[in-house]
Amino acid sequence: MRKTLLITGGSRGIGRAAAVMGATQGYNVVINYVGNEAAASEAVTAVEAAGGEAIAVQGDVAVEADVIALFDAAQTKFGGIDAVVVNAGIVGEKATLADMPLERLTRILNINTLGALLTAREAARRLPPSRGGKGGAVVIVSSAAARLGSPGEYVDYASSKGALDTLTIGLAKELALESVRVNGVRPGIIETDIHASGGQPDRIARLGPQMPMRRAGTPDEVAAAILFLLSDAASYANGAIMDVSGAR
Ligand code: NAP
Question: If DSSP codes are grouped into helix, strand and coil, which group holds residue 85?
């Protein structure tokens, strides 16, 4: 019997890697995306090629109704949810806090922090057996930025991720007796589109060689940590936040 894995921002980057790796480990996958339908459809095909079933569900994690509809779609299609990866996130363009307009701060916090809270809340409403669920596991994708602060680049993003580490610690304790484990991962610099989306397409080439391991990480290297924390092999890992940042 395959389990069901729901991933916000599963169409590209780290989320897509976790979706495909999840399929190889026995999951069917619900792939959420916000705008890139072609990428989401390609991710569905990749999950299917890896042996899983998948659906793509459009929705903005910052919109409560979209998050509820996403979980509804997962339950309708697969009958229940075993694992949730709270992954969708964005960065803004390189700037100091003094130069960030309110619109940007609102957007970063709405998607990264409110979106994660809404997604995690929905998991907390549906996974516990006391609420009709099967129990399960949640992984929240934070960032090394949460402990580095990202000065001169994106302090807003770093702050939005710091809140996710707090969420991981608190929700793990709330659900500790509900058969739901909650852990986090803090990726370092990973080879995905997010850097170009934030106006720095050369960020990997520029900063990768300056990292302790003299390279950036790959989405698969983060996905492996996510899948471990979701798995029964991590049965006593709860409220943990794993750095996957190449010693950065
Ligand atoms: P990415 O390649 O840019 O992919 C972002 C994903 O999030 C896409 O699937 C995108 O959907 C989705 N998304 C964006 N806004 C959304 C919204 N409002 N609602 C729903 N989905 C949304 O990003 P990534 O690098 O894989 O990052 C994934 C997570 O890892 C993020 O939380 C990021 O902060 C974190 N992280 C990344 C790095 C890194 O270096 N890459 C480092 C540390 C932490 P569409 O395809 O539809 O646009």
Answer: strand
